[in-house]
């Protein structure tokens, strides 16, 4: 059998970058069942309401929706079950300290295949207020207008 190489994105959580200020990112493996992997290979998953928690020195991913595998039998998985994430002990201890001291959240940013294994990118994030979101939108719009003006000036239409 041919080994997979490279990285193939399954799903990404674009709303997380809008709702949270990303402070640090971690790559974690996941404990999955066979039908979950088959469903992910079809590109079917949703990170919309997903979040991670740390309990008893282990990291758990909650509310990740992986739909049942269509050709699965009675061995099919439950779509929104809690899944264990695989991180180094030092990373988990660092996360526990940061989450407890400053009220940060663990938010999944994307899920992808890396050399045939399912990985998830977790972010240590702080929730944005609505005025922060408006400020970011205004800043992005201003940068877009500047880029347009520079482009017009370079073409001689400015």
Describe the fold and architecture:
There is one protein chain. By secondary structure, the protein is an alpha+beta fold. Helix content is 34%, strand content 33%. The protein has four helices and seven strands. A seven-stranded antiparallel β-sheet has the order 1-6-7-2-5-4-3.
End-to-end Cα distance: 59 Å
Order of helices and strands: EHEHEEEHEEH
Structural class designation:
alpha+beta
Poorly predicted spans: none
Q: How are the strands of the largest sheet arranged?
A: 1-6-7-2-5-4-3
Q: How many individual helices? A: 4
* Radius of gyration over all CA atoms, rounded: 20 Å
Structure summary, number of beta strands: 7
Summed up:
The chain is an alpha+beta fold. The protein has helices spanning 14-19, 34-41, 89-102, 130-154, and strands at 7-12, 20-30, 51-55, 58-62, 83-86, 105-114, 117-127. A hairpin with a 2-residue loop joins strand 6 (105-114) and strand 7 (117-127).
């Amino acid at each position: 059998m041919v080994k997979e190489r490279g990285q193939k994105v399954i799903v990404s959580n674009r709303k997380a970058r809008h709702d949270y200020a990303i402070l640090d990112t971690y790559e974690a493996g996941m404990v999955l069942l066979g039908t979950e992997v088959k469903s992910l290979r079809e590109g079917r998953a949703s990170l919309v309401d997903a979040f991670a928690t740390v309990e008893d020195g282990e990291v758990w991913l909650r509310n990740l929706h992986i739909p049942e595998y269509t050709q699965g039998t009675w061995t099919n998985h439950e779509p929104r079950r809690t899944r264990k994430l695989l991180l180094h002990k030092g990373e988990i201890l660092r996360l526990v300290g940061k989450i407890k001291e400053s009220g940060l959240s663990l938010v999944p940013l994307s899920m992808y295949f890396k050399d045939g294994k399912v990985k998830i990118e977790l972010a240590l994030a702080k929730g944005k207020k609505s005025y922060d979101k408006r400020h970011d939108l205004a800043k992005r719009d201003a940068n877009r207008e500047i880029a347009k003006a520079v482009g017009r000036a370079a073409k001689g239409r400015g």
